[in-house]
Every structure is written in C-alpha cells, then in structure tokens.
Amino acid sequence: MCQPVRVSASVPAPPVCVLGLGLIGGSLLRAAVRAGRRGWGWNRSAPTVDAARADGFDADTDLVAVLRRAAADRALIVVAVPLPAVDATLAAIAEHAPGCPVTDVVSVKAEVAAAVARHGLRDRFVGGHPMAGTSQSGWEAGDPDLFRDAVWVVSADDGVDPQIWSQVARLALDCGAVVVPAESAEHDAAVARVSHLPHVLAEALALAGAAGGELALGLAAGSFRDGTRVAGSAPTLVRAMCEGNRDALLTALDETLAVLNRARTELADRGTIADLVEAGHDARRRYEQRERWTVTGIEPGEDGWLEKLRDAGRRGGVLRP
Questions:
Q1: CA-to-CA distance for 100 and 86, rounded, in angstroms?
Q2: Residues 242-263 pLDDT 10s
Q3: What does pTM read for this prediction?
Q4: Of the four, 180, 188, 254, 267, which is 20 to 30 A from 156 by CA?
C-alpha cells in the first residue's frame, strides 16, 4: 500500500532565516517559530525590526550579521523581499552564506531561478510560493495562520537537490500549508491566470466604478467589493509581480480580451451575453467542485522523482504533513 510523502517526519528542520519581514515573510517567521522552529529575520527598515522585536521575535537590520549567523547555523534562508530587491539579496547571500540552502516566497519563479543561477546558488536553491495573502502589507499585517490549508508551491525544477527540496517542503508543511510541486515555467503560466490577471482586472473594475462618479460608488455592493478587493494592494507590489511575469501575463490578457470582445460583439449584435455567462458559470463550478488528493509513493531522490512530482502537481495532487 502506498504511503503519503511524509517529508515532515523524515527530514531535519534547520533554523529559518527570513530576509524581509513584510506580510509574507513576517507571517512565515511567526508560523515557523510557533511550529517549534528556531528562526530569526532581517529587514532594512528599522521600524519594522523594532515592531518585530516588540512582538518577541529575533530580528535585525544588519544583513551581513544575519547572513553570517545563518552560515554558522546552516540555516534555511528564505528570500521574502519584493522582486526588484531579489538580485541584491541573492548577491549578499552568495557573499556571506553561500553554503546555506535557500528558498524564496516570490510570486514568480522563472525570473528568480535565473537570478539564482547568475549568483552561483543554483545547487543550493529550491523555489517556493505560498498562495496566500491579503490586501494589507507590512509586519503588522502578518498572521501565523495565513498559510493554514493554503497551497504552497515548491519548485520541482531539473537538478534540484532532493534533501533541500524536502527541507523547503517541510517548512511549508510546518507553516500549515499543503505542498504542490510544480516546475517554474508551468507555475508562472498558471499564476498569471489565477493571481496576476485578477489583479489587473480588479484595477480595471475599480476604474470603471470610479468613472461612474459618486452615484455608482454609492450603489456599489458585494460584487464590486469582492471584484476589486485586491486593487487595495500596494501598487508597487502589484507592479512587481505582474511585470515580473510579463510574458505569461500577456498571454492570459490576450485570451481574456478575446473573450470580452466576443461577449461585446454578442451583446451588440444579438442583445445577449449568454455564451460568456454560461461558460463562466461552468468554469466557476469546476473550481468549486475540484478536490485535492494526497500524493503517495514518491521518495525525493529516487529515479524519476521530479517528473513524478510534477505530474502529480499537474493533476491536483498535494503533499500533506
């Protein structure tokens, strides 16, 4: 009988060094420490570090000192800075903690993987992306339950070290998430549709409502509120993730514009949007009714393990604690 892939029970849990203590990094540090992991963090903003310390967490503004500590303790380093800051952060890791395993929580994977390769860290890196968040940002918005039952993508790219892959997967599981293995380019194509495109559409919908003046905004209720929720996210963060996944987002935008143009033509010529509404309703029902299944019988490091995990992720499989 096949058994679940229980990386949580079989893989050592090194200390965690989180670089960037915003919503995701701050929530990760909270969740990891609550799970019994030893962890500390870095942020360039002194007020953020002061706030983390006031909440009882180990944090510092001295990146070199934090990385040297990670090197001494063989910590798992988590890059949790915005995409534009990733390159400089990786350069610091390459200089001060090149032997540490490294992961990240950035919303695009191929661009980060390319930066990792430029800095000579490929052999020590396994990408990650927790599919969780809110429209709020900063340390104060952090929540140790943010990842509870959320999907956490762990990159299953060719050449990844199976032990480091398992360490990253264990961190995700310790934070309360379920793990979906995926290759970086496939991840980016998928999140362009279900994460980055929704941000673009939310911004456009917010503009459409505002163009209707105070009457329109005064009449706005649940559908407008829910459809524009992520438009409340910090513009710099939205730009970073959307622009960092430019090619995949352009494909998703082109397809969506074609759908909207067909709906407009149907409405203008026939007075109906039946095709769009019915197809969209069916697609939503498919999303609501899909079920996760637990990946079993795959041992990281065995022959063909990466392709087996990628195939399982494509078919809706997840790793659980």
A1: 16
A2: 999 999 999 999 999 999 999 9
A3: 0.89
A4: 254
Q: Which residue, among 185, 60, 19, has the nearest Cα to 112 in the 3D structure? A: 185
Helix (H, G, I), strand (E, B) or coil at 183: coil
State the alpha helices, DSSP H only, in the chain.
Answer: 7-10, 23-34, 46-54, 63-73, 86-96, 110-118, 162-174, 184-191, 197-211, 213-219, 222-227, 235-244, 246-270, 274-289, 305-314
Kindly state which CATH superfamily the domain 188-289 is placed in.
Answer: 6-phosphogluconate dehydrogenase C-terminal like domain (1.10.3660.10)
Residue for token pair 């494909």: 251
Indicate the domain borders of the chain: 7-182+291-318, 188-289
Any alpha helices (H) in 180-302, and if so which ranges? 184-191, 197-211, 213-219, 222-227, 235-244, 246-270, 274-289
Q: What is the DSSP pairing of strand 151-155 with strand 128-130?
A: antiparallel
- What is the domain class of 7-182+291-318 according to CATH? alpha beta
Structure token pair of residue 241: 């993730």
pLDDT tens for residues 93-130?
Answer: 999 999 999 999 999 999 999 999 999 999 999 999 99
